[in-house]
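Please, structure for the following, as tokens.
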Amino acid sequence: MVDVAVTERIRSFIQSQFPLARQRTFADNDSLLQAGIIDSLGILEVVTYIEKEFGVSVADEELLPENFGSVQNLTAFVYQKRNGINKVK
């Protein structure tokens, strides 16, 4: 079960750090990259936030759209990392 508070914290961070997130309405499952809300440098800001805020480590090979493409994906990623769940591709 994904923690709603985690989703709210991630959404709040994105809205506070990225001007387009404040200007556009977006759903938790919308692609942040395709919507232009976050660019490749923005992903690095999100990674730093995720690591500090939730106490998880993000490996280079985890920097994938399925992990960082949307608020929903970020929430699931944090949940998996916090609970020691490794996705197998």
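The chain has a mean pLDDT of 90. The chain has one domain: 4-82.
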